[in-house]
Amino acid sequence: MSMFFRRLAKTAPFALSNAFKGSQSSTSHTSRTPFGVIAATISGGISLYYFTSYPNLAYLDSINEETQKKVALNPDKWLEFKLHETANVSHNTKLYRFAFDPDAELGLDIASCILTRAPTGQNDEGKTKYVIRPYTPISDPHAKGFFDLMIKVYPEGKMSQHFAKLKPGDVVEVKGPIEKLRYTPNMKKHIGMIAGGTGVTPMLQVVEAILKNADDKTQVSLIYANVSPDDILLKQKLDLLATSHPNFKVFYTVDNPSKDWRGGVGYISKDMVTKGLPAPGDDTLILVCGPPGMMNHISGDKAKDRSQGELTGVLKELGYTEEMVYKF
Question: What does pTM read for this prediction?
Answer without folding.
Answer: 0.79
